[in-house]
Amino acid sequence: MKRTGTFPFTAIIGQETMKKALVLNVVNPRLGGVLIQGEKGTAKSTAVRALADLLPPRPCIVGCRFHDDPADPANWCDECHEKYDADRSSMKTELLPMRVVELPVSATEDRVVGTLDIEAAIKEGKRAFETGILADANRNILYVDEINLLDDHVVDVLLDSAAMGINTVEREGISYSHPARFSLVGTMNPEEGDIRPQLLDRFALSVYVAGEKDLDRRAEVIKRRLEYEDDPEAFIEKFAEEQKKEVTRIERAAKLLPQVTAAGDILRLAAKLSITLGVDGHRADIVLIKTAETIAALDGHTEVGKEDLREAAKLALPHRMRRRPFEEQKLDWSDVDKVIDE
Amino acid sequence: MRRAVYPFAAAVGLEKAQEAVMIALVNPNAGGLLVSGEKGTGKSTLVRAARELIESPKRDEGVEKFEGAEQIARANISDNDGKFANGDNLALADNGAWVEVPISVTEDRLFGSIDSEAAMREGKRKLLAGLIDEANGGVLYIDDANLLREDLLESILSIREAGGFRLERDGLSEWHDARYTVLSVMAPESGTLAKSALDRFGLFVSIEPIGDENIRAEVTRRVLDFERDAGAFRAKFADETENLREKIAQAKKILKSVEASDAMIRLASVYTLKANVAGHRADIYLIEAARGIAALAGRQYILPKDLERAAEFVLPHRMRKPPEEKTESAPKDAEAPQQQSEPPKNEPQKTPPDELFDQPNEQSKPPTNDTEAHEGNTEPPKDEDSMANPNTESRERVDAADMRVKLPPVWVEPQGRRKQTSGSGKRSATKTDEKQGRYVRAEMPRAKTSDIAFDATLRAAAPYQKVREKHGLALAIRPEDIRSKVREKRTGNIFLFVVDASGSMGARERMKTVKGVIFKILLEAYQKRDRVGMIAFRKNHAEVLLPVTRSVDFAQKKLATMPTGGKTPLAKGLSKTEDVLDTIYRQDEKQDPVVFLITDGHATKPIAKGGDAVADAMIEAKRIGRRGLPIAVIDTENGFVKLGLAKKLAREMGASYFAIDKLDENALMRVFRKTAG
Question: Do the Cβ atoms of A148 and A105 come closer than 8 Å?
Answer without folding.
Answer: no
